[in-house]
Specification:
There is one protein chain. It contains 3 helices and 4 strands; from the N terminus they run βαββαβα. The chain is an alpha+beta fold. It has a 4-stranded antiparallel beta sheet.
Length: 98
Amino acid sequence: MTKFLILWKDDMSRIPEDIEEQMALYARLVNLVKEDFKSGMLDWGEFVGGHAGYAIVEGTEQEIAMALTKYMPYLKFKANPVISIEQVEEILKAQPKA
């Protein structure tokens, strides 16, 4: 299964200006993150200063794309597939010898 580093940021054009509405929205989003941890999210964090952060998840491209839709339109995402150190070593071993 592929591991992804997901970089996210708030779409500030979609965030309500009213502070009470903002807090209610952020509470709903945090609850979605908590649910994602129950279904296999590996890590999640917000960058100091807020409005952006990261998640680490495993799955197929389709599974990840589907999972991210519940956060739209409030967040924007960039999904980066990553490989492990073991996979890097295998790639290096497969390279032709000079």
